[in-house]
């Protein structure tokens, strides 16, 4: 049997994690601003359902990667506040993963939005 109270409590913890991510993490705020701009431009350009699905998926993936990166950084800082070469490598790789995804998302955005901008103005 599913314990609904546990499920609701889990959603509460997850929601608090999302709030904390956007409240305290500068990079999440930057990604949030980029998402707002993309959504506004997409609305203005009149995207198709598939284009919306692709852009929203990219936005969600970047935010999720940023959350995982932040969690790993906090865990590493908790394990040892001192500088350590392995901790540095872990943090660098995690932030590199976010960068890879952000570049991919920007490329997808440019393909979709750029095509519409070119069609509209040229």
UniProtKB/TrEMBL annotation:
<dbReference type="InterPro" id="IPR033717">
    <property type="entry name" value="UDPK"/>
</dbReference>
<dbReference type="Pfam" id="PF01219">
    <property type="entry name" value="DAGK_prokar"/>
</dbReference>
<feature type="binding site">
    <location>
        <position position="95"/>
    </location>
    <ligand>
        <name>substrate</name>
    </ligand>
</feature>
<keyword id="KW-0808">Transferase</keyword>
<keyword id="KW-0418">Kinase</keyword>
<protein>
    <submittedName>
        <fullName>Undecaprenol kinase</fullName>
    </submittedName>
</protein>
<keyword id="KW-0067">ATP-binding</keyword>
<dbReference type="GO" id="GO:0008654">
    <property type="term" value="P:phospholipid biosynthetic process"/>
</dbReference>
<keyword id="KW-0479">Metal-binding</keyword>
<keyword id="KW-0472">Membrane</keyword>
<dbReference type="GO" id="GO:0016301">
    <property type="term" value="F:kinase activity"/>
</dbReference>
<feature type="transmembrane region" description="Helical">
    <location>
        <begin position="93"/>
        <end position="118"/>
    </location>
</feature>
<dbReference type="InterPro" id="IPR000829">
    <property type="entry name" value="DAGK"/>
</dbReference>
<feature type="binding site">
    <location>
        <position position="73"/>
    </location>
    <ligand>
        <name>a divalent metal cation</name>
    </ligand>
</feature>
<keyword id="KW-0812">Transmembrane</keyword>
<feature type="binding site">
    <location>
        <position position="73"/>
    </location>
    <ligand>
        <name>ATP</name>
    </ligand>
</feature>
<feature type="binding site">
    <location>
        <position position="25"/>
    </location>
    <ligand>
        <name>a divalent metal cation</name>
    </ligand>
</feature>
<keyword id="KW-0547">Nucleotide-binding</keyword>
<dbReference type="GO" id="GO:0005524">
    <property type="term" value="F:ATP binding"/>
</dbReference>
<feature type="binding site">
    <location>
        <position position="66"/>
    </location>
    <ligand>
        <name>substrate</name>
    </ligand>
</feature>
<dbReference type="GO" id="GO:0016020">
    <property type="term" value="C:membrane"/>
</dbReference>
<feature type="binding site">
    <location>
        <begin position="91"/>
        <end position="92"/>
    </location>
    <ligand>
        <name>ATP</name>
    </ligand>
</feature>
<keyword id="KW-1133">Transmembrane helix</keyword>
<feature type="binding site">
    <location>
        <position position="25"/>
    </location>
    <ligand>
        <name>ATP</name>
    </ligand>
</feature>
<feature type="active site" description="Proton acceptor">
    <location>
        <position position="66"/>
    </location>
</feature>
<dbReference type="GO" id="GO:0046872">
    <property type="term" value="F:metal ion binding"/>
</dbReference>
<keyword id="KW-0460">Magnesium</keyword>
